[in-house]
Amino acid sequence: MLKTKFTINLTFLVILISGCQREENYITNSSIGLFSYSSYPIGTAIDINELESNAIYKSISLKEFNSITPENIFKAEALQPKPLTFNWTEADSLVSFFLTYNKRIHGHTLIWHNQLPQWIIDYQGSPYEWEQLMKVHIQTIVKHFKNKVTAWDVVNEAFNEDGTLRNTIWKQKIGVGYIEKAFLFANEANPNALLFYNDYNLESNPIKRNSVLSLLKNLRNRGVKVDGIGVQMHVSTYYPEPTQIAIAFQEIIADKFKIHLSELDISVNPLGKNIILSESLFNEQANLLGSIVLNYNQIPKQYQYGITFWGISDKNSWIRSFYNREDYPLLYDDNYMPKPCYYKIFKVL
Ligand code: 9MR
């Protein structure tokens, strides 16, 4: 009995070690990162503080990814902290650093209701003056990064879950036409930039997705340039089902919009319970990621803008601080070691 147990354990150990060695080869024996295996860009959100202080973070960002979304420093509070005073220092340094390595820069985000500077929140003006404020904000930024930033999330999170338009400060001050105007202003500032609408739960909530699609189709029918949709993909091992995600992708491409999986992370603890970490938990996460990537692979090439993860290590994910819960949503663990979901991508790309 004892002997059988020992044999099984030994066999298991051998399998485990050889499996680990195979996986280790991906990272130790080659300088080839995730993006080199992919026919479409693979990106990450970048936290400027980590980039400047953490050498491992920096080297992973360069090795594994070829598309970069600044996580916070392109937002209005960072770029225009005071009226008509633009602060380019951090954004310029991040952009020029990654351009040196031929990375694509994705601009996130021009018009949003969060992370606004106080002066915009307090601004008193007519609808026309608000429209001018929005125009100057969009066009100054888009022109500043012309030939550097490939694409913009022009408007972010403008819809409610029931499909109605969110009552943002922009809608209150300018009216429902603010989304159309934002796209027109961005296009005027750089006709070569790709323009995206970005939102969450589009992969799981058909009501919200249909509203977004009908608004964007309407804009496009009237000659407004809208290139694609950022499907954020803050998903979890519990929800949604891969089939729901596949349906979302099919509906979006049927309407001829590019798809950016723009903020992908996979929560393993969406309900904030006390969890026990296990191999099966992380395998489940890896399997979901695998099916997301396989579904994305099915999209015709012209609609594949790329897949962007919302960070590198679990340690720095927005989820832990925002929801104040234990979670492990990204490709690397707290010590910057690749997790099963990292290895899974190599198998499905
Ligand atoms: O990851 C970002 C986090 O560091 C910020 O504190 C937070 C502030 O709202 O924004 C996070 O990023 C969000 C993104 O800009 C838009 N979609 C939801 C993301 C997660 O909240």
Please describe the biggest sheet, giving its number of strands, its sense, and whether it closes into a barrel: 8 strands, parallel, barrel
Name the quaternary structure: single chain
Please state the second-level CATH architecture.
Answer: Alpha-Beta Barrel
- Low-confidence blocks of residues: 1-29
Distance between the terminal alpha carbons, to the nearest Å? 44 Å
Query: Number of domains in the coordinates?
Result: 1
Using the CA coordinates, give the radius of gyration. 21 Å
State the helicity in percent bands: 40-55%
The averaged pLDDT comes out at 93
Category by helix and strand content: alpha/beta
**Strand order in the sheet with the most strands:** 1-2-3-4-5-6-8-9
| CATH class categorisation | Alpha Beta
CATH topology label: TIM Barrel
User: Which hetero compounds are present in the coordinates?
Assistant: ligand 9MR
By CATH's scheme, which homologous superfamily applies? Glycosidases
Tell me the strand percentage band: 15-25%
Q: Count the beta strands.
A: 9
Counted by DSSP, the helix tally is: 14
Notable features of this structure?
disordered N terminus; 9 strands; 349 residues; TIM Barrel; alpha/beta
In short, what is this structure?
The chain is built from 14 helices and nine strands.
